[in-house]
Each structure stands twice: as structure tokens, then as C-alpha cells.
Design a protein that fits this description.
Elements: E1 6-12, E2 15-23, E3 48-49, E4 54-55, E5 63-68, E6 71-75, H1 77-82, E7 90-98, E8 107-115, H2 120-133, E9 135-143, E10 146-155, E11 158-164, H3 186-199, H4 211-224, H5 243-253, H6 257-265, H7 271-280
Parallel strand pairs: 1-7
Antiparallel strand pairs: 1-2, 2-8, 3-4, 5-6, 7-9, 8-11, 9-10, 10-11
Helix pairs in contact: 3-5, 5-6
């Protein structure tokens, strides 16, 4: 059983459930160490006090808040614990919402919520009720020195919890450039929808791999064996000039060979044109 990130109580109404949270996912990445270029020794980051000119032991460290340049307010662990809100020990569901109304942009870290001793029945009750209703719970919980707003989601095998960004932490799309407001032709829209449908498939996460990490592993293995390293060929792409032509080529590229010939000449007509043709007939 993985170590718990948080233990406490989950409550809705007057029902209280002892639970523990454990990370639902973790990043798998190849990491490199920093080495001294002269002797290839690994560089370490010691806890060093420049005033005392010596290394500092862990029990000599305290926490301080810099309110002015080089001026600190000192806090003991007891003082910081006294500031912890009720959500550090208990997670109350404040309301239930439709999951499809929550923008995934707000999702941050994911956890599994499992029942502790004595909480199995109430946990199962909440799980089944949420599955049948289709609702997700909104609550608050304090972890790692921060009060998080979280969404609790029911899955067939248990409850999952996602910490969420606060609204003021979400950057507006306009901050990252605006989209082209040019007029889109109806034929372009129809072809684009067809291309989406041709590319549609059931979500199977096992199909996707981190190519960069795979390339790094290959690079490391080749380097360890003294083999020649071959650069991964890049693909050169240019901005689309003729949107209609690009859409047509995309559609034919994603269709079986026998359908390509017909697709080249069968450009869908806008809905208004199709209605007009039917009236004329």
C-alpha cells in the first residue's frame, strides 16, 4: 500500500467517512545529474550558511517570511500548525456538481481516496450514490501547506480526487494570443467535421508513449555501448495556404484506398445548398 498523502475525514451532510489519499499517478522521467566539467564529480547542493561559513544541520533550520529585503518574521512549527484550518483534518463536501460542467483546465494533481477502518460502508454508500446520480463533489482540503479546492469523482473501483487551480490562477486565453476571427466557409466547416469524425476513436491511453523519453533511453544505451548516435529526423512543416486543399488531402489520407478517388471529387455541399437542390428536384 502506498504511503498516504493525507489522512482525515470526508463528510457530506452528517455522514463522516475516515479516508486516506494516495497519489493516483506520478511522472516517469529520465533525469540527469549536474557534474563538474573538470573532474566529472556530481555537484551537490549543501545547506550552507554564508554568515557562519559552515554547513547547517537540519535541526538548526527554522522558517521565516521575508517582509522586507533581508528582514524576516520567524515562525515555529507550533505557530504554523495553529494556523491550519479545519480542512487540514476534515474534508467536507460543500456541494455536488455535474462533472461535464467542470473545465478540465482547472484540474491539477490526482489522488485515490480509500476508506480507513470503520468507513467502508459509508464510503460504499457515497460511491454508489454518486455513480447513480452522475454528480461529483466539491470540497476543500489542506495539504502541503495549502488549502486546495478539490473535486471528488466516482469511478467503478472507488473515489478519485483532483486538486484544482483557483480561478485567479487560470490564465485567460487572451493572454496567450488571440485566435483568427476570419470568416470560415461552410464547405470548410463541413470538411473539418468529417476529418474529426474520421480521426475519432475510443480513448485508450495505453496507445500513447513518451517518444522523447524513449529516444533518451535509446541514446543512453547507445552511448553506454560506445555506438554512434543517430539524430532523429525532423519533419518540416509550413503554414497552410489553401485551407480547402489541405482539408481534402487530409480526408483522403485517412480513408481506405477505394474511397479516396470518390472523396477527391465529392466535396459536401453546405446545408443551405442541399435544401435548395432538393426543392429544385
Amino acid at each position: 500500500m502506498p504511503a498516504a498523502s493525507w489522512k482525515g475525514f470526508l463528510s457530506f451532510g452528517l455522514v463522516t467517512i475516515p479516508i486516506r489519499l494516495s497519489p493516483a499517478a506520478r511522472t516517469e522521467r529520465i533525469s540527469f545529474n549536474q557534474l563538474h566539467k573538470v573532474c566529472h564529480t556530481r555537484i551537490k547542493q549543501p545547506q550552507f550558511c554564508p554568515t557562519c561559513q559552515r554547513m547547517v544541520e537540519r535541526n538548526e533550520i527554522e522558517k521565516g517570511y521575508e517582509y522586507e529585503k533581508d528582514q524576516y518574521l520567524l515562525f515555529t512549527e507550533e505557530e504554523l500548525e495553529a494556523a491550519e484550518p479545519e480542512s487540514s483534518r476534515s474534508m467536507e463536501i460543500l456541494e455536488f456538481v455535474r462533472l461535464d460542467e467542470v473545465d478540465p483546465l482547472y484540474f491539477d494533481s490526482s489522488y485515490y481516496a480509500a476508506p480507513e477502518t470503520g468507513g467502508a460502508k459509508a464510503y460504499q454508500l457515497l460511491l454508489e450514490a454518486m455513480l447513480e446520480s452522475g454528480y461529483a463533489g466539491i470540497a476543500k482540503v489542506t495539504m502541503y501547506g495549502r488549502e486546495n479546492i478539490v473535486i471528488i469523482r466516482a469511478k467503478k473501483n472507488g473515489l478519485a480526487l483532483h486538486t484544482m487551480f483557483y480561478p485567479n490562477e487560470i490564465r485567460q486565453a487572451a493572454d496567450n494570443g488571440s485566435t483568427d476571427k476570419s470568416e470560415v466557409k461552410e464547405q470548410e466547416r463541413v470538411l473539418a467535421k468529417q476529418l474529426i469524425e474520421n480521426l475519432a476513436a475510443p480513448f485508450k491511453p495505453e496507445k500513447y508513449h513518451d517518444t522523447y523519453q524513449e529516444n533518451l533511453r535509446t541514446l543512453i544505451e547507445a552511448k553506454a555501448k560506445g555506438q554512434k548516435i543517430t539524430a532523429v529526423p525532423g519533419v518540416s512543416k509550413a503554414p497552410v495556404v489553401d485551407l480547402m486543399e489541405a482539408l481534402k488531402k487530409s480526408l483522403t489520407a485517412k480513408q481506405p484506398p477505394q474511397e479516396k478517388r470518390a472523396a477527391l471529387h465529392a466535396v459536401p455541399k453546405p446545408a443551405a445548398v442541399q435544401k435548395k437542390d432538393r426543392k429544385a428536384g
